[in-house]
Amino acid sequence: MLPYGRQSVDESDIEAVAQVLRGDWLTTGPAVAQFEQDLTKVAGAVDAVSVTSGTAALHVAYAALGLGRGDEVVTTPLTFVATASCAAILGARVVFADVSEDTGNLDPEAAAAAVTPRTRAITGVDYAGHPIDAPALLDLAHRHDAVLVEDAAHSIGGSLDGRPVGSLADLTTFSFFPTKNLTTAEGGAVVGTDPELVARARTFRTIGLVRDPDKLRYPDEGPWHQEVHEFGLNYRLPDLLCALGSSQLQRLERFKARRDEITARYNAGLADVEGLRLPGRREGADPTWHLYPLRVLEGRRRALFDHLRAAGIGVQVNYIPVYWHPVFEDLGYQRGMCPVAEEYYSQEISLPLFPDLTDGDVDRVVDTIRQFLRA
Questions:
Q1: Could you tell me which residues carry N6-(pyridoxal phosphate)lysine (predicted)?
Q2: Is 215 one of the annotated active-site residues of the chain?
């Protein structure tokens, strides 16, 4: 079976991890600091906080904002459930707004209609790797004394109008799951443009521990002393995985270039096929394509999905609208709230896309699709 996504690991990655195993630190050591420094540069942020997953990154980001009961978060339903559930876990109410039909990203006009005096955050998702309309969403958030969070699980290495993903929002979250644009096996990060928010994220990530003598309530207790002023969780990413991440970051540009080539080959091979809609790309956006979200029209998505799977081609659907999940349904959310997102979901298939995919693999996928739609 040809997978729809897969990690790309080489000997340099293996050696980077082996060096950590030969050293004195397995966790919370120099490799963590190096990875966070490397991420900060790539993202154009003021600082980075590594965490154990993309879901942890969202939880940490929302906790850094102090989200709680009575607060609202406006976000898209066309995403993995964690974008919304991490806010709900903290007690906030999730308000879903519809997406733009070309990119699948949060529509600024729909988001504006969903904002209320209780809105504390607007969270856009870089669907498939295409950056959100950050200027419009940032302006909207700040006009309402809210914060823009960019869920960039799909898009590290991308940019908008020449600015890197990670520098476009107040807080940005990354995922480093194996199928993503680079991997730490499991892992994620929070980066930001506001030093205070990033510092709060770091404290929450580290169980809420405070060690800075200037911030201790009882500084004279002794050199061993540490305090917890607000509750946090242990979301620390170990040195082993951070070493892998720093090694992968050295090849991020190469990964992006290959993903661009594969996307262009799909576009060329499928451009003249009726019944399909290819991924949209807006002016100024330079995505790192994590997914190739093909849309299959005329109600034929399920049949093509089954045909491709039967042919040994791993495809996926991204994503079930978040409020369709029973946990949200049981909270009173109903289908039909975001019709553009629901139509997008009803048509979408993610084709195989990863750096080690060969041109022959791409052509096989294209030929199988073309043969099916001609039948």
A1: 180
A2: no
Instruction: Give residue limits of the domains in the chain.
Output: 11-249, 252-374
Buried b (16+ CB within 10 A) or exposed e, 10-29: eeebeebbeebeeeeeeeeb
Rounded-to-integer distance, Cα 86 and Cα 95, Å = 13
Would you say residue 375 has pLDDT above 90?
A: no
Is 125 in a helix, a strand, or coil? strand
Beta bridge partners of 159: 164, 286
Q: Which among 41, 180, 215, 256 is annotated as catalytic?
A: 180
- pLDDT 10s digits, 34-61: 999 999 999 999 999 999 999 999 999 9
For domain 11-249, which architecture applies?
A: 3-Layer(aba) Sandwich (3.40)
Partner residues linked to 11 by β-bridges: none
Using one digit for the tens of pLDDT, what is the confidence trace for 259-296?
999 999 999 999 999 999 999 999 999 999 999 999 99
CB-count burial class (<10 Å; 0-12, 13-18, 19+) for 225:
middle
Q: What is the homologous superfamily of the domain 252-374 according to CATH?
A: Aspartate Aminotransferase, domain 1 (3.90.1150.10)
CA of residue 313 relative to chain centroid, distance = 24
